[in-house]
Each structure stands twice: as C-alpha cells, then as structure tokens.
Amino acid sequence: MTTIKDIARLSGYSIGTVSRVINNHPDVSEAARIKVEQVIREQNFQPNSNAKQLKQQSNSAITIIVKGYENMFFEGILERVQAILRDSGEDVAVAFLDEYSNEVQTAIQLCAARKPKGFIFLGGNLEFFKQDGHKIDVPCVLLTNTAKDLELTNLSSYSTNDEEAGYTVIDYLIRQGHSKVGIIGGSASRIGSQIGFRRMKGCLDAFAEHGLFFDEKTQYQPSRFSMAGGYESTQKLLKKNPEITAIFAIGDTIAIGAMRAIKDMGLSIPEDISVIGYDGIESGRYTIPRLSTIHQDTELLARKGVEDLLLRINYSHPITHEDINYTMVEGESVAKPRKRKEIRGR
Amino acid sequence: MTTIKDIARLSGYSIGTVSRVINNHPDVSEAARIKVEQVIREQNFQPNSNAKQLKQQSNSAITIIVKGYENMFFEGILERVQAILRDSGEDVAVAFLDEYSNEVQTAIQLCAARKPKGFIFLGGNLEFFKQDGHKIDVPCVLLTNTAKDLELTNLSSYSTNDEEAGYTVIDYLIRQGHSKVGIIGGSASRIGSQIGFRRMKGCLDAFAEHGLFFDEKTQYQPSRFSMAGGYESTQKLLKKNPEITAIFAIGDTIAIGAMRAIKDMGLSIPEDISVIGYDGIESGRYTIPRLSTIHQDTELLARKGVEDLLLRINYSHPITHEDINYTMVEGESVAKPRKRKEIRGR
DNA sequence: CCCGGTAACGATACCGGTAACGTTTACAAC
DNA sequence: GTTGTAAACGTTACCGGTATCGTTACCGGG
Known about the structure:
2 copies of one chain form a homodimer. With 346 residues, chain A is an alpha/beta fold. Chain A folds into 3 domains: 4-47, 434 Repressor (Amino-terminal Domain); 57-159 and 298-324, Response regulator (Rossmann fold); 162-291, 3-Layer(aba) Sandwich (Rossmann fold). Chain A is built from 13 helices and 12 strands. In chain A, the strands form 3 sheets. A 6-stranded parallel β-sheet of chain A has the order 2-1-3-4-5-11, covered by helices on one side. A 4-stranded parallel β-sheet of chain A has the order 7-6-8-9. In chain A, helix 5 (72-87) packs across helix 13 (298-315). Mean pLDDT of chain A is 87; it is low at 340-346. The first copy, chain A, binds a DNA duplex (30 and 30 nucleotides) through residues 3-5, 13-17, 19-20, 22-23, 25-29, 32, 47-57.
C-alpha cells in the first residue's frame, strides 16, 4: 500500500510538503506541486481516510439515517442524497431504522463511535429531537418533516408544507363531491415515525372550512407505513364505516395497499371508492388505476438538504427551515362519488 | 470526548489493560475486567473507530455496492443485509451505482481509500469481475448472480438458480397453452447489469424442449431494469409482434411497467396477455392484478451472504457458490390464452 | 554589509487506539 | 534460597495522516 511517505520519498520532498499539496495549502512552490502531483498520479495514491479522520478529530462519513425502510418514498430520496454526496467527494454511511426506533439515540451513539461529519435524517420523530436533539454535536438535516418549532441550533429541515398539502387533498375530494372521507396512516399517538401529523392538521382544517364534521373514531385509521399496513388499515376502516366514498392515504405506499384491499373487498376504484395518496413515488405512476397523489419534489429536497449540510459543515452556515413546493398529480384513482352498492365480502 | 486514556485513569488501570478488556483478551484479571467495564459503562465510552481501524490497517466498514437502484428487489435485500450486519456490530457503508457503472472499478477505488473489510455486491456484471475482480484485495460476496465459473479466489456468490427458474417460467407458460411468449429485460449485450443472462438461457432450453421456435428478433426486447424500462420495452415488443399472448419480464419491476403498458394499449391482463415476473418484490403482491412471479428468498440470500463474508473476514474460510431455492408464486396475472382481439391504439 | 521579512520546506508532536514486549509479582519446584 | 514460570499489567512503538513550528535561503532596504 502506498502511503504519503512513499510519495515523499519518490518525489524527493518531505511528507509535510506532500500533505500540503494534497490539501491545497498555499506554502508550496509550483515546481513541488507539479512533481508531487505527478508522483501521486503515477502511484495512484489515495490518502488513508482513517488516518486523516483520526488526526482531524471527529469526522468520517456523513451518515444518512433512514427511518421506516418500508416507505418507498425514502428510497427515492436516499438514492439522490447519496449520489449528490458522492459527487461532492463525501463518504456516505447509511443506517436503516424501523418505523418505531429512536433515531436520535442512534445518532448520539454514532457520534461517539463513528464521529460523522453530519447527519441527514429521512423522516424523524420531532419528540425525540425535542428531547435529545441537542446532544447530537454535529450538523443535522431533517428531510420530509419540519423542525421549525424546535429551537434546536444544529438542525435544519426541509419538507413539503404538509399542512397545506393535507388541506389541498381534502378540499379537492370535497369539491369532487365526497362528504364521507376516510383517512389512513400516521399514528394517533406521537410515537412512531410521526409523518402525517401535520398532514392531518391540514385535513381537519379543510373539513372545518367546508362545514363538515370529521369523526376521528370512524373516519380515521392509523397505519404502519407500508403496503401491508395500508391493506389492513383499509379493511378496518371500511368495516367500521361503510359510508366512506374516498380515502386519503397519508403515503403512496399505504395507498397501494389500500387499493389492493378495496379491490379484494369486491369494490372498484375509483367508481366505488376514490383513493388519493401522498408522496409521488414512482410505483404510483404504474398502478392500475394510476394513483392520484401529492407529488413531493425529491430531487429538490435532496439537493437542498445536502447543500445545507455541506455549507454548515464547511462554513458554519446558519440553520434553515424551508418548505418545498408540492404539486397535486391527478391520476385515475379519484372520481366523483356515486350511489354505493353493497359491500360484498370476498 | 472520552478516550481509552480516560477510562484507564478513572479505573486505575493502564490503557493496555483497558484495551484488553475491550477486546476480550485473556491476560486480564477478573477484578480488572469488572472495574474497567464499570467505568466504560459509566462514561458510556465508545472506542474511536478511526483510531482502531488505522492501527489495524486495512479495514473500516463493510461496503455494500448496489448496482441498479431502480431495481426494487435489491432494496429488500439491502435492508436485510444492512440489518444483519448492524446486529453483528459491523459498520456498513453503501454505494449506489446505476445499472451501467463498473462496480468492480468502484470497489477497487474504495479499497485504496476506504479500506473496507469486505464487499457485498447486490447485482453485478460478471465480465467486470472476470477482468479486474482479482484486484479487489478483500473478501467479496456477490448476491443474485453466480460467480461459479470465474475462478476468483476472493468472491463467493449466492443466487437463485436463474437458469432453472427461467426454464420453469417458460415451461409453465407453455403448459398453460401459450406458444407465442415474449421476453423482456436484460441486455442483449453483456454490458449492463447483466441480470437475466442465465435466466434467458433457461428460457431457451424450455422452448427447445417443447419444440417451439423462439425468434429473438421479434419475441425478445431488452429493457432497463425499471418500471419505465418495462413500460417502453413492452410497447416496442407488442408493436413488433402482436401475436404474443404472454410476457415474461425478467424482473418484477419491469413486469409492473409492462402491466401498465399493456393496460394502456387497451388490453387486459391476463385475459389478453399474461404477465409473469421474477424476484418476488413486495409491490408485486399488491398490484392489480396480483403479479405471478418467481419468488427469491431474500431473507436467506442476505443471511447466507453476510454469514459467508464474516466467516471469511474473521477466519479466512474458503469461498462458496450456492444456489438458493426459489418458489413460483401464482398471482392473477397469468391465464390460458384466448382468441386474440384486435389491438387498439390508445 | 547587516538585518528583517517571507516563501518554501522539513522535522516532529499528536490523534486514539492495538499489540508486542518488558516488568512485576506470586508461587511452585528443586 | 535460588530459579523458573506464568499471570497480570504497564510501556511504548506504530498506524498514516495533519498542522505547528523551526529552519533555510533569498530578497530588498537602510
């Protein structure tokens, strides 16, 4: 293995000079730079990152913590974030957590052992951040949720304006003529991945504005953030409230499970029941029928998040909280309600 | 930050002893072990992995190289592999490559800079391994493809017996009465992710055995490994050969795109065209209609792969090549062919 | 000519661990 | 009592970088 010493020996300069060349320090002559760079290329030398990171104390890769690996929406962002980070020459580590783990605890532990330069959270529970977020001693970015109200000094956040989008969805369904709308997804308690808490708030506002009563008992059903979760929850929801003519699934993954459940109950989409999702994952564009949904701009989300993190790592920029634009995508899964036929068992 | 020195000071022992306790070395008294462990817990000390890895030369995390991130099948395995590795206390790094990158080159570069303990490849091009595989100087495991014929000393592989499974699929379709079967996916050349090369071979055997001629020109269509790829390729395939009554998509992701394309051409599944996939991803269980497919045991694949890698890293075990059992899952996307109606454009 | 300043570079301490080796102590064997 | 041996522990070199600091050589100004 070639080390900086070999480069020094072969180039006729000292390791100090070689190090300066590598790190673009000024105190090095043109001649030395050229010679050293040549040798580095010849040997295709790569500085040992362990040594570098050990010396520079506290930093290795940027760690992406993905909370809820069954949520396919994250996978799109993950890929993007990872790619951008790689192109920026950063190391990337990934930790997948299930929907119910404490991502902040995980981050704190990783800080002690791995010493990452920073974290990017794909999903996260604000309660956990409120409790222990300050213990994470490196810059963090939270994606797909906002930490605006948290008063943390180390956490930026970028997300769709979930509240507004939630409002948009319900408003849209009501305008289509649906008065009995069901909502599935998110957890009633604040435990869990907590995505959808704000979305729900927007929904309630929309109902209120239209003068409609929303009975959380019979029109709402919590759900794991997965297709299987959506499937089960839809069955439960429609069983306890057969009047429902439209379902808002708080994530596309859940919506796909919901559509399958509806079909299995002998009903058709959108004739009997309309379905609308949230996220805009690729799969939703290929379902039969195509899924109507709120499309979040993953590309932008990823880019902004990474940009923010790098600026803060390298130049101690201030934290930012920003809402990213969303668009509603009309697929084929929503129609005006019609007179309901009997629900057939299967 | 607490270091091993702090532990030494606080426990009244030397750093040598502390190190021995941490690493379970024998030469340490019961009293010392207990005391040191207590202090470690109190301070909740985590050894600095950079220092450790620097000293131990050549090793940091185990790196998972995912080739073709649009292939949802990999994401299931990735999650599993990652979880098992984490439970084993290993660091995990992930690199996502697109379908057309050279994963072996990437691994070689990572070896120089990152010094991982080993690699797990999710998908891979055998040609690349044949060329440069020997340059990767750490243990590797290839998942979802076999390196049996490669004569590499550092590469184990676990995969479904693709050839046999390919045979099974075509045999099944033919027994259902389909004589004009189309195949999409995989690349005709050996460049690209190359998944499906063996699958194709099994297919050809099945056609031959049943005395059917398979015209690669009109019955085969290469495809990117994504829903979008499946969509486009299906359109092309059905355009150049409208006689086809069944399509074998060489991956479920492709199959989902195919189903959508068929639907958009005004045909129905499975009445007009049967579709069968390969992989057994979760999405396929929620499509409408449910996708028939070859289900690969991701859990087993992941477990065997990780187990193999760890054994070889820690105990220099020999390499292994093993075929994992597959099962055919009958969904709702395959039926006996019927008299074809005209293809309507859309 | 001498001095101060500076560009360019070398020598070296240090980061936090590991492991080889040396030292101490206790105890058994002779 | 001396010696051998092994357990238990301390000391220290080393991993491959970075950064500080010291050194050298050369420059211009007085």
